[in-house]
Write a structure and sequence with these properties.
Shape: globular
Structural class: alpha/beta
Strand content: 15-25%
Strand order of the largest sheet: 3-2-1-4-5-6-7
Number of domains: 2
Helix content: 40-55%
Number of strands: 13
Number of helices: 14
CATH superfamily of the largest domain: Glycogen Phosphorylase B
Radius of gyration: 21 Å
Amino acid sequence: MKVVISAGGTGGHINPALAIIDKIKQEDKKSEFLYIGTTNRMEKDIVPEKGIPYVGIEMQGLRRSLSPKNLVAVFKYIKGISTCKKEIRKFNPDIVIGTGGYVTAPVIYAAKKCGYKTLVHEQNSILGLSNRILLKYTDTLCTSFESMKPDNVHYVYTGNPTSESTINKKPYDKTDFKLSKSKKLVLIVMGSLGSSTVNEILKGTLKKFGSKNYQVVIVTGKGYYEDFSKLEKSKNVFIFPYIDDLPRLMKVTDVLVTRAGASTLSEIMATKTPSILVPSPYVTENHQYKNAMDLVKKNAGVLLEEKDLTEDKLITMIDDLINDSNKMLEIKDNLEKLCKKNSTTLIYKEILKIINKEK
């Protein structure tokens, strides 16, 4: 099987693409890949390091307001389509896959215009702008949330590809982080880069957690770690700039405090981690809030909006959840029901259907 795959901008888009690649490699040892991403976002480093052939195109996101910069974005988009057509024809794939980020728009559009079959995966509970545009050029749309039921496209609820790979990960040993095995663990992380707004509030909690019978790990993001390292903290608080393969720590976490990105929620479901969700209010169409509410409405998570976040409010909510064993078990049971444990397998089956012209 020959596959062109595209995703860009954030780990939330890139990691599902990599999970799909791993699944195809597992099922088809002779599979070949071409990854099309941007020239200036994180995928340009991550993907080539994994030995996956990579083509970068210059892209720029459209601004929601009127701006001269949108003219530059349109020019790059048109130029990107031309480059994609050339690269796709040269590679001659069986299918072209997009898993999000504005770079996927010229890739999927070019593929369909060149007569190739396409599949798009949407991680969020609402369609992103690029994927809305791409619906008419998509043979199959795979969705992460059962609540998403778009019109005018063949869609399949598959869950998020990162779920299946997360389930198979080995848990970290708490002692790897100098943590006590006997004490409960609260993990606080606001994405790989951290959040300046939330981190300012977290600084005020470092000593307040001292009276608690649980331990707290705060992942600041690399850009904020130095500030935190200078502050006085309680002995049960541990600060890290970044933790590689975070789902492995989530598997031994009692309560997680986190953003509500789609990949994060898929990892929460896969690890069955009771979570306090603090959606980022700075994302397009407030989609993290809508993602979070998909879990909250099913009693599979707790919501704390950033506008309501204070030091005392956060600590109180953590205390209320971690000390309520019935609530914790109920959330775990509901997360178990929500999790698609075979997401990449389902996506792989859809790929085969498309290639074999079956629906």
